[in-house]
Amino acid sequence: MNAKAVVFDFNGTLFFDFKENEDAWDLTCQKYRGYGLAKGEFSRFAGMTDTACASLIFPEGSKEKIIEIYTYKENLYKDLCIVHGLDLADYSREFILALRERGIKTAIASSAPTMNMDWYIPHFGLDKLFDVLIYGREDLPSKPNPDIYLLSQKE
After folding, report:
1. Which label site among 4, 12, 15, 110 has the fewest CB atoms less than 10 Å from its CB?
2. How is 92-116 classified by DSSP, letter by letter?
3. In angstroms, rounded to a whole number, what is the distance separating the alpha carbons of residues 113 and 49?
4. What is the pTM of this model?
5. CA torsion, ordered 47, 48, 49, 53, to nearest 10 deg
6. 4-39, pLDDT tens digit by residue?
7. 110 within 8 A of 134, measured Cβ to Cβ
8. Torsion of CA 50, 53, 59, 60, to 10 degrees
9. Terminal-to-terminal C-alpha distance of the chain
């Protein structure tokens, strides 16, 4: 392998939490707009920041209301992850360690909010697995825009 670095997304790549995210958004929608997610609505959120997701669901929300909404959602989400006993994807830890043994740098470039990554990092020991962790960047456009991945090249 001639690679000098490998950049990973986190949610849905190293951590399979699709159901927990969808369920948390569904419950949040029920609380804040009176009805849950419409069929297929959650698929629009892939790779987006919490601010972008909450703004799509609650376009009339003030900045403070959007923060309240996604904070509520993230607390539900973390509870669901704990209840379901989620862990990193099978063999991902071994793969990352094998890359590092070969001198290949590893990075995470994630749209996950700071409140989540600050929870994941100690829970999964991500700071010991990765050379660079980029996350919580509300100043970058949401994926599929490549800016967050391009930023990892500079780190």
Report:
1. 4
2. HHHHHHHHHHTT-EEEEE----HHH
3. 7
4. 0.80
5. -140
6. 899 999 988 999 999 999 999 999 999 999 999 999
7. yes
8. -30
9. 21
Helical (H) or strand (E) element with 123? helix 114-124
Residue type at position 12: G
Q: What is the pLDDT of residues 82-115, one digit of tens each?
A: 999 989 999 999 999 999 999 999 999 988 888 8
Amino acid sitting at position 112: A
- The alpha carbons of the chain give a radius of gyration, in whole angstroms, of 16
Query: Which residues are registered as beta bridge partners of 107?
Result: 7, 132
Residue 83 corresponds to which amino acid? V
Reading the block at residue 19, the tokens are 């159901």
Phi–psi pair at 108, nearest 5 degrees: -115, 130
* Angle at 152 (CA atoms; ends 49, 137), nearest 5 degrees: 25
Hey, what amino acid is at 2?
N
Q: How far apart are CA 109 and CA 53, in angstroms?
A: 18
